[in-house]
Amino acid sequence: MPRAKQSMHGTGTLSEREQAFVLHQEVAHLATADARGIPHVIPVCFAISGNMLYITIDDKPKTTFTALKRLRNIAENPAVAVVVDRYDEDWARLGWVMLRGRAEIHTGGTEHQHAQALLRTRYPQLAKMDIARCPVIAVRIERTTSWGNLSVGEGG
């Protein structure tokens, strides 16, 4: 397998190739850490608008939103990373994009509504859920790193 090219930039924006790859994938992995630096990684659904990545807490039977480890971690330590990747048995198709930035939790307002609308458009399953009352994690993308095959056509 030829050596894959790695790209890293701190502009806060994705290249066209990175954005196409990210938007082609349906799941990302959100990495948070608490105040002591203990990591926590979970799969998430996401949407992107400009240099912002949004994740909603969906309408699952949870006791309280404040009990969620990802939200507690962001309150203690807003530095996060999000990895969007593709695995394939054909290793020439492997690729990933890592987005790093600072996260905020929104529980209402214009940005919250905008994020929820984007997420409902991207994931039809959310249309049946009462997510308007659910918090949104907003990640301001500060740095991107990518590696591998980011094509989204037949070869990617």
Could you explain how this protein is built, in words?
This protein is α+β, with helices and mostly antiparallel strands and 156 residues long. It has one domain (7-148): Pnp Oxidase, Chain A (Roll), CATH 2.30.110.10. 19% of the residues lie in helices and 37% in strands. The protein has 3 helices and 8 strands, in the order βαββββαββαβ. Strands 1, 2, 3, 4, 5, 6, 7 and 8 form an 8-stranded antiparallel β-sheet that branches. The longest helix is centred in the last third of the chain and has 13 residues, at 110-122. The radius of gyration is 16 Å and the shape is globular. The two termini are 15 Å apart. The model has no long low-confidence stretch (mean pLDDT 90).
Short structural description:
By secondary structure, the chain is an alpha+beta fold. It has helices at 16-24, 69-76, 110-122, and strands at 6-9, 28-33, 39-44, 47-49, 52-56, 79-86, 95-106, 136-148.
